[in-house]
Amino acid sequence: MITAGQVQEIADKIEGMGVDDSTVSALRQQYQNIHFTYCMDDDLPNNTPVLEYEKFNVYLIDGREHCLCLTNDYEAATGIVVAEIIPE
């Protein structure tokens, strides 16, 4: 389970540090019980983020079963996807 407060705290850190691999690496060290994935937002079409920002979106991952899937259920969430938005 990941709380809405944790996700907001993480998103605030991303805003301050910038969206890139080094930020996600730092988050992995700081929040070792949460699985982090970094990708481009256009890799996740037709999905709804739990938080939206100008430069990135935040999605939740449910990893309780054998396959990972996106979820909007904080209680089912085991990880976070940080999805960078590339300006057109």
Can you put this structure into words, describing what you see?
With 88 residues, the protein is α+β, with helices and mostly antiparallel strands. The protein has one domain (4-84). Helix content is 27%, strand content 27%. The chain has helices at 4-17, 21-30; strands at residues 35-40, 51-52, 56-62, 69-71, 79-84. Strands 1, 2, 3, 4 and 5 form a five-stranded mixed β-sheet that branches. The protein is globular and about 35 Å long. The model has no long low-confidence stretch (mean pLDDT 95).
Summary keywords:
single chain; 88 residues; alpha+beta; five-stranded mixed β-sheet; 2 helices; 5 strands; 27% helix; globular
Overall residue-averaged pLDDT value: 95
Q: Please summarize the sheet with the most strands.
A: 5 strands, mixed
Radius of gyration: 12 Å
| Number of distinct beta strands | 5
Provide the low-confidence segments as ranges.
none
The fraction of residues in strands falls at 25-35%
Structural class: alpha+beta
The SSE string, one letter per element, is HHEEEEE
Helix content: 25-40%
Total tally of structural domains: 1
